[in-house]
Amino acid sequence: MSHHADHPGRRPAQRPYGTPGWRPPYPGPPVPPVPPMPPAPIAPSETARGILWAFVPFITLGYGTPISFLYAAIRRGSWNLGATAAGYGVGTAGVITLLQMENPILIVLGTFVAVLLWISGTAHAFAVRSSVFPREVPRNRLNEHAIEVAMYRRSLRDEARTLAAEDPALARELRIGRPDVPRTYDDGGLVDVNHVPPEVLAALPGMTPELAERVVRRREEHGGFVSAEEMAVDADIPPDVLPEMADFTIFLR
Fold it and tell me: Do residues 60 and 44 lie in contact, with contact meaning Cβ atoms separated by under 8 Å?
């Protein structure tokens, strides 16, 4: 019996991959880690700071009330809080004056007023705490975050362009510039003018449906473009909208 005869219970060996002659693709260069997106602004611990501020009159036995309300007036730009700080300042000065008198009655009166200012100042501080230390994020911080996100998206586009220039095959595999198909790589919003459908082209800044159809016709005639400038010349793109278009376009062949 031949040694090459198949045993009844043994399966013939199979190739490790599906189709004959198939080889795993050559791995492209490793993609550098993408920096994390800037987190949305979160209001700092205004509650804790507000409570600490409100406790100043209590901790200082009322003598720090004028200073704490002066800080609140400056922080909020409030004339009312400024007037309140002045009122507490006058009251505190009166207490100090009465306590320095030799008359026992005036000393008792000064002590009573001091306790009154201590309690009322603490209660007043807690009453206005939420207006002095609001919880919402200030609008200018939201604007700063919007700028950070826009700059972050721009950096993603620059990284995707660099990757596409160094390894076009990997760029196509990652579907850079193809928001119309499923993918996992974030390219910052790039659009591959040579391959996306007209409706995606029409969503580019400055692009119109008519311009998009013209671009599609030209790319079918010429087999695609190599740059935004060539697209502008061939498809007669208005020069005033080309710069904003160029920031979001890529041209893979």
Answer: no
DSSP label of 136: S
Instruction: Return the structure tokens found at 14.
Output: 């199979």
Q: Where are the domains of the chain?
A: 46-132, 154-250
For the stretch 65-98, pLDDT in tens is: 999 999 999 988 899 999 999 999 999 999 999 9
pTM: 0.51
Half-sphere exposure of 112 (CA within 13 A, CB side): 6
Report the 10 Å Cβ neighbour count for 230: 15
In the chain, the DSSP E strands lie at 191-192, 249-250
Which 3 state secondary structure label does DSSP give 163? helix
Q: What is the DSSP letter of 137?
A: P
CB atoms within 10 A of CB 167: 15
DSSP character at residue 12: P
Phi-psi region of 224 (alpha: psi -120 to 50; beta: other; left: phi over 0): left
